[in-house]
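Good morning C.,

I know you're traveling, so I'll keep this short. The sequence:
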Amino acid sequence: MLLNLVFLFRCRCKGHLLLFIAVSLFSLTGCRSPEPPEPPKTANQPTVQTSAESSPQTAAVAAPEPQKPLLAEEYRPVPSSVAADDDAEPLQKPKRPMVAIIIDDMGYNRQLGHQFLQLETRLNFSFLPHAPFTEELALLARQTGHEILVHLPMEPKEKKWQLEPGTLLVTDSPDQISRKIEEMLTAMPHATGANNHMGSRFSEDGKGMLAVMNTLKDHSFFFVDSFTSAASKGLATARRLHLPSTRRHLFLDNVQEATTICRQIDLLVTLAERQGQAVGIGHPYQATFAALTQCGNDALKAVEMVGVRRLVH
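The tokens, ready to paste straight into the viewer:
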């Protein structure tokens, strides 16, 4: 600007004055500050769908906030099997297979009966209704929380066996069968279920087993088919009448030797692991008591010992 004033004093003609004005205007325009450049245009922002129910809409996506790394004590890994939502149920420990062991033929051996009832292993006891110590031992079984069954005597195929009083015979009429069972249930007031004693012949008779199941159903009993015959109609008849029922899977003590019985207990556990549940039947033998004492606790740790009522359906 100072140079322009000096130039003004030196100008002495009109032409020079016009030249001065043009130069001054050019200089003033050059003194303006430059405007900031326009921001570059960016591509369209991506679309965000807020939920499955909402219709697709476009929305600006905010930049994620920087996250600090988790400290070791803050890190809590989430199992992959757990749902992410807050309402997810906690994981449950898988249930153990269930095993029920029934000790049949109770009521004749008072001393062994007491020994079996004192075992810590949870057992079920099936009493012969007319045995001499049934009333005493069944009451003790009830007081100690064991499941009690009526051991219904049924006719076997072989004639060598001595029959119990009131044994159900294939020649009995439905009324006779019902009357015999009623007498046996009266002698066993603490029982809630029944299974058959012997019965390889009678259990194959459809009419006879139908009379048995109808009588048990009238008393809201459950039934365990001892399965002394592969042709037994007990379980099928009970299921047809919607009577809670199951069957025996293994006899523990056909061989009365403790080591063999221990192997049978192991096999019963294997069956339960394969099927989810299993029913074994033993008898008040000294060898059976010895096996349950020597190997039973360890062998049965892998399963849950239950009252047989839990396995009927």
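Safe travels,
E.
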